[in-house]
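Something for you to look into today, if you have time. What I am after is a single protein written out in full by you. I want to see for myself how the chain folds. Could you add the entry underneath, on a fresh line?
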Amino acid sequence: MKKLFAQIIKFGFVGGLCFLIDFVISTVLFHLLIHAVSRNMATAVGGFFGFTISVIVNYVLSMKFVFERKEDMSRKKEFVIFIILSVIGLGINEVILLACSAMYEGSAVLMAAFGDTLWFAVSKVIATAIVMVYNFISRKIFLEKKS
């Protein structure tokens, strides 16, 4: 139990750092694109690039500090599985961001209470929390050495 708790703490630190990377890249791209393309497109593009770059950093840190590698799995196979699991997480992330964007655009109350930036930030936090749980469970199941 202590080992699992320590692993969750390490996963949280790695996830927190990768969240910051994702959040900064997503937000910067959103702001650069919001006046050039639709809100949904700016949201999707920002979310995609932030998520993708953070996944690469996450792979390196997760496999070094969080999960015990399977000795019989090649690094190439491990990376491919990590990417597949992450692409599923990206899909979950994008669906949540777009649902939040649609909810925002459809609500005068939300638009009055939140600006574009704050609503995007709230959406990103919600999406990240859900995807983080999915990531831990799926990586533990498919990538970690069984004790």
